[in-house]
Amino acid sequence: MICDLAQYYNIYNYEQLAFNKLAVFVFGLPDDSRIMKKLSGLKVDLNTVMTAGVLDRLSMILYSLAGSKGSKKPETLTSILLGNKKTKEKKPNGYVSGKEFEKRRQEILKRIGENNGK
Q1: Which of 17, 21, 70, 116 has a CA-to-CA distance to 78 between 20 and 30 Å?
Q2: What is the pTM assigned to this prediction?
Q3: What is the pLDDT of residues 32-68, one digit of tens each?
């Protein structure tokens, strides 16, 4: 929010403003400001999403015109930008220290013990 206030209103010392005046400035921030993107859950601004949508439609048209039966459908850029694409998260396959290993081991043993008692 501090960066947005500085960028859009040239307010560098927001602490000197009254709370209600600060609220008016924050409420008036545009949709492409950092805080508004954060509140709306978007990682990118609306223009970028719309441009990606146009690109996605164009690549689908080209894919269907080419008649590529053996190839995969092109990935949609909008799903990647909006976070709808499911990505596989790699689980860590090691521990940084012995303490971390022992802690995790105790958690697993405790969970196994609880499940065996049921």
Answers
A1: 70
A2: 0.49
A3: 788 887 777 777 888 888 999 999 999 988 888 877 6
